[in-house]
Fold this sequence. Notes:
This protein is α/β, with parallel strands linked by helices. The protein has 2 domains: 1-50, no CATH class; 68-223, Vaccinia Virus protein VP39 (Rossmann fold). It is built from 8 helices and 8 strands, in the order αβαβαβααβαβββαβα. The protein has helices at 9-16, 31-38, 52-58, 80-92, 103-113, 136-145, 197-201, 215-223, and strands at residues 24-27, 45-48, 63-68, 115-126, 148-154, 166-173, 180-186, 205-206. It has a 6-stranded mixed beta sheet. A two-stranded parallel sheet has the order 1-2. Helix 2 (31-38) links the parallel strand 1 and strand 2. It is globular and about 40 Å long. The N and C termini lie far apart (37 Å).
Amino acid sequence: MEPSCGDGVFLHQLKNGIFKFNSSTAIEFNNIEAQKASAVQLNKSEVINEDFHKFCNQTAKRFDIIVGNPPYIRYQYFDVDQQLEAVKVFERANLKYSKLTNAWVSFVVGSSLLLKETGKIGFVLPAELLQVSYATQLREFLSKFYNKINIVSFEKLVFPDIQQEVVLLLCEKNNTASHQIEHIEVKDADDLEKLDIDLLKSPKKRIDHKNSKWTFYFFRAKRD
């Protein structure tokens, strides 16, 4: 599932790459972009033109893998219905919704709620995930909800046109008692092709639930 598919870039990748999947569900709020995504004509794929928060609160579907690059929009720019649905997402996760919260936070929380008992998410997120105060409870939620967390950061800007530092957040839920985290730094997006997948399978550092900032694990990595 992809909670904000835009014009279907990820769907194109699924169509043109060698990937095995049973089905794909993509959500897009903007009608024009949803039409573009539908035009990709990916087999066994459904594009739903709807607000993701509403979809999240109403669907009974559960997914094995959820990926995306969610919108970076402040709460005050949501319409009233979107705000109400976003609040419901947070309440279902036993979290408090703040007017400082950005849309990407509720997209990550909502997507987590839509996973099966074992599942994975992969998101392109602003680097502020690691330490801003309004994402504190998100970090706490992810630390307890997931058993494996990998943060991939970049030395160079991935999207230089918008001057926004981003990271990849890769999380796995596997119903074990372990909660591990790892930080991996690469030069740029092209370097991802060289990334050793085995590193992602076995994060080494035990999550410290008392520490509210994930940059803590970066510093530990330098000392190790």
